[in-house]
Amino acid sequence: MDDKILHLAERGNLMAATKLARRVYKLSLTEAKQFVEEMLK
User: Fold this and answer.
1) Where do the DSSP E strands lie in 1-41?
2) Rounded to 5 degrees, what are φ and ψ at 28?
3) Buried b (16+ CB within 10 A) or exposed e, 5-17
4) At 26, phi and psi to the nearest 5?
5) CB-based contacts of 22: which residues, under 8 Å, 6+ apart?
6) What are the pLDDT digits (tens) for 9-36?
7) Residue 20 belongs to what domain range?
8) pTM over 0.90
């Protein structure tokens, strides 16, 4: 699932990537946003 999250984020769809991370990993909004941002580094 990380590949799909990364794919969305790399194409500029950060909102969808964050939403997917929240759903898959049961993260808070802040945690999911940080997760996605770390994936992009």
Assistant:
1) none
2) -75, 170
3) beebbeeeeeebb
4) 55, 50
5) 28, 29, 32
6) 999 999 999 999 999 999 999 999 999 9
7) 2-39
8) yes
- Cα separation, 13 vs 35, whole angstroms: 14
| Nearest C-alpha neighbor of 5 from the set 25, 30, 28 | 25
Residues with Cβ within 8 Å of residue 35, at least 6 apart in sequence: 5, 18, 21, 25, 27
Give me the number of domains the chain comprises. 1
Q: Are 5 and 33 in contact (CB under 8 A)?
A: no
Q: Say how far apart CA 26 and CA 11 lie, in whole Å.
A: 23
Spatial separation of the C-alpha atoms in residues 40 and 17, rounded to whole Å = 11
